[in-house]
Amino acid sequence: MDEANAMDLPGHGRPVAQPFNPWPAVILIAMICLAFLFLAPTIGVLLSSIKTTREIALGELWTVPAALYLGNYVEVLSNPAVHRYLVNTLLVTVPATAASIGLGTLAGYVFAKMPFRGGNLLFLVIVSGMFFPPQAILIPLFRLFNVVGLIDTLWPIILVHTALGIPICTLLMRNFFATVPNALRESAILEGANEWQVLTRVALPLSLPALAVLATLQFTWIWNDFLWPLIFTQSDEKRTIMIGLVNLSGQYSVAYGVQGALSLVASLPTLFVFLFFQRYFIKGMTMGAVKG
Amino acid sequence: MQRENTFWRIVFLALPLSVFAVLVIWPLASSFFYSFTNWNGFSSDYDFVGFRNFAKIYTDKLFLNAIINTAVWMVAAIVLPTLLGLGLALLIDSHVPGGQVFKSIFYLPICLSAVVVGQIWIWIYQPDWGLLNTAIGFVTGEPLNYAWLAKPNTALGSVIVAWSWQQTGLSMVIYLAGLTAIPEDLLEACDLEGASAWQRIRFVVVPLLTPATVVVIALSVINSLKGFDILFIMTGGGPFNSSDTLAMHMYNESFKKYLTGYGSAISVVLFLIAITVIGIYFRQLKKVDEIYG
After folding, report:
1. Residues in chain B closer than 8 A to A45 (CB atoms)
2. Which of A128, A131, A231, A277 best probes binding to B when mutated, by most B CB atoms within 10 angstroms?
């Protein structure tokens, strides 16, 4: 009956007529304190971004400002370098997200629906790619792209993120395709469909949640990445937003308000993805956690 | 039919496999190769030096320092977010009002980048007006000007706290997913048998969460090994290399000192550590699987 007391007091059993149970209230207060602690860093940045440099210089970085000041955002959004960084990041993130999911879908379909000798081993090799520290492949990749003249372009970042996304995309798509009944595929094939048609018309439409999960993961991870653009690009023209953020924080070294606004602008796309896809993301995690 | 299947397998696998082979497997093999050379990263010729790069590891004090820091970093980066995430998940699962809101709040930092998280926490640790010193000063009544990130004693720990702040939401979400998979009647049975809340959590809930723990720890290992960005942003491995990890050391040797051959040797060691940790972990996992079916 009283299922709200998952955190009941130890040793309290289940008295028939308990006059007052303080635990739900204690838990709620504890949660509010924890939530405040967790939010404080983010709120601090938000508050700083709507203050003038003068207010911040007076030691008011962490207080609520008397008036809303949007000058920092004007400064950030009118900076052509910021536009360039954002466009570059988009040009990397969208193709790499799409390509890694596409390739993972193809491989995942074969591993789930068309098993073959040695397939499991191959699958393990691909999935183990998730565990490789990027540093272990960094130097040869730098050399490869240097030889073909692609250093200081966006191409190496796109290609490497595509390749590094293949393990997680293959794993998730294989697990998801495994839940699609074999009978669906077989009846489609009996009706004359080929594997490509089964994949695109039968399996994929059923896999939208998995695709949403992967889109969330890959978009966030590629947008936020710092290491690969740091290695592969040199000129300011080709930098992505996360590198730009570091560069600009030097330029605006005492303008903390501008830095705060910049951090928020750089995080907006992933925040939006988070808000809109949160349900899918958690669903995906359920799949992963329950099915192992 | 059989032939047709083979045809489609090749069609579907050709592109993913070749991309993966060229951009992941081949570079990995090359790293092993370069680790036996004295290549400087840009010249076209280099000599084989046998195991000299690996021998150098033994005499490189900075390497030993980096190994220790990596171990501290990994253990803390696994234990802290896992325990915090489990605790938060249990609290939210106790049907606290506004659970959905709390979930989003704790989860929010995971969508921020290491650069942004680093920036935020640099402000928190800032000696003169940082939130931490301000809060401590407020509580104790004495102004504090401690430079958390600039002191060798606290630099690594401070970054670990920032990292845990970001990663906790991820383990919390996975634990919450695991909690929904626990049958309700099992928990009711616990109540009927007169188990206390602690006994229920300790002996029923946590063991049943083993699959979720497996996912959480695997993700933590993967993420902590990749935890280069946040250290790079917050401390750059300093002060006095006190927060220098293997990944950081490898970057400095390869891209600052142009000792690419030696850098490759470090990356090979890093790779072997990663594979060993993951290997041990999955062996344990098998045992757990056998116990819990």
Report:
1. 116, 119-120, 123
2. A131
CA distance B178 to B89: 10
Identify the segments of chain A with pLDDT beneath 50: 1-9, 11, 288-292
Task: Specify whether A82 is located in the same domain as A45.
Answer: no
The pair phi, psi for residue B86, each rounded to 5°, is -65, -45
pTM of the predicted structure, to 2 decimals? 0.86
**Residue A68 in domain:** no
**Inter-chain contact A129–B174, Cβ cutoff 8 Å?**
no
The two structure tokens encoding residue B129 = 């007006």
Q: Is B44 part of any domain? A: no
Residue B238 lies in a domain: yes
Clarify whether residues A114 and A163 are in a common domain.
Answer: yes
Domain-embedded: residue B17 = no
Structure tokens at B66: 């980096």
Beta carbon pairs, A and B, within 8 Å: 289
Q: Domain range holding B215?
A: 56-292
The domain containing residue A35 runs over which residues? 1-49
Q: Does residue B173 belong to the interface with chain A, where contact is any CB pair within 8 Å? A: yes
- Residue B98 carries which side chain, given as an amino acid letter? G
The number of distinct structural domains making up chain A is 2
pLDDT for res B257:
82
Please indicate, yes or no, whether residues A117 and A205 belong to a single structural domain of this protein.
yes
> Tokens at residue A69, please?
């000041």
The CATH number covering residue A165 comes to 1.10.3720.10
Interface of B with A in 26-65 (CB under 8 A): 26-28, 30-31, 34, 41-42
Q: Does residue B52 carry a pLDDT above 60? A: yes
Q: Coil, strand, or helix at residue B97? A: coil
User: What pLDDT shows up at residue A61?
Assistant: 67
> Token digits for B21?
């082979």
Residue A164 lies in a domain: yes
**How far is residue B199's CA from residue B204's CA, in Å, rounded to a whole number?**
8
Nearest Cα neighbor of B109 from B170, B157, B178 is: B170
- Based on the number of CB atoms within 10 Å of its own CB, is B244 exposed (0-12), middle (13-18) or buried (19 or more)? buried
Give the lowest-confidence range in A108-117, A218-227, B83-92, B145-154: B145-154
Domain count for chain B, please give it.
1
ipTM over 0.90: no
Confidence of residue B159 (pLDDT cuts 50, 70, 90): very high
Whether the ω angle into residue B239 lies within 30 degrees of 0, i.e. cis, is yes
Q: How large is the average pLDDT for residues B33-42?
A: 82
| Residue B1 included in any domain | no
